Amino acid sequence: MPGITTHIACSCLFLPQLEVVDPYDFLLGTIAPDTFDRSASGSFHLHHFAGPDGTSELERLRKIAIEVRRRGGLHQISFVDGYFAHLWLDNHARLYEDVLEIENPTGLEGN
């Protein structure tokens, strides 16, 4: 899974595309799933809405987000949007990081 810095960097790319969002709460939501208690059994799965295959069940979070959008204020909506962005990036990395091809047009050598 991407680190917190990667989540924040990607979220900064999303922010200009969002119409109404509080940037501070959005960024807090972006890092929130990774602030779980690592010593508690099942904590990762709970905070990442993880299903049996380990990927986040974004549909479950989407339903929560719809309810928050209906009832919540700007801060809650921004936080949930950031949370969703975090889980989306986790799923994207899980599904596609193994197929990422890195080109080396200059023939650089490395370890």
Sheet/helix structural class: mainly alpha
Share of helix among residues? 55-70%
- The ordered string of helix (H) and strand (E) elements is HHHHH
What characteristic shape results from the CA principal axes?
globular
Radius of gyration: 16 Å
Give your account of this protein's structure.
By secondary structure, the protein is mostly helical. 56% of the residues lie in helices and 0% in strands. It contains five helices and no strands. The chain has helices at 4-14, 23-31, 43-47, 58-71, 74-96. Helix 1 (4-14) crosses helix 5 (74-96), helix 2 packs across helix 5 (74-96) and helix 4 (58-71) packs antiparallel against helix 5 (74-96). The model has no long low-confidence stretch (mean pLDDT 84).
Summarize the structure.
The protein is mostly helical and 111 residues long.
Secondary structure topology:
Elements: H1 4-14, H2 23-31, H3 43-47, H4 58-71, H5 74-96
Helix pairs in contact: 1-2, 1-5, 2-5, 4-5
Keywords:
globular; 111 residues; mainly alpha; 56% helix
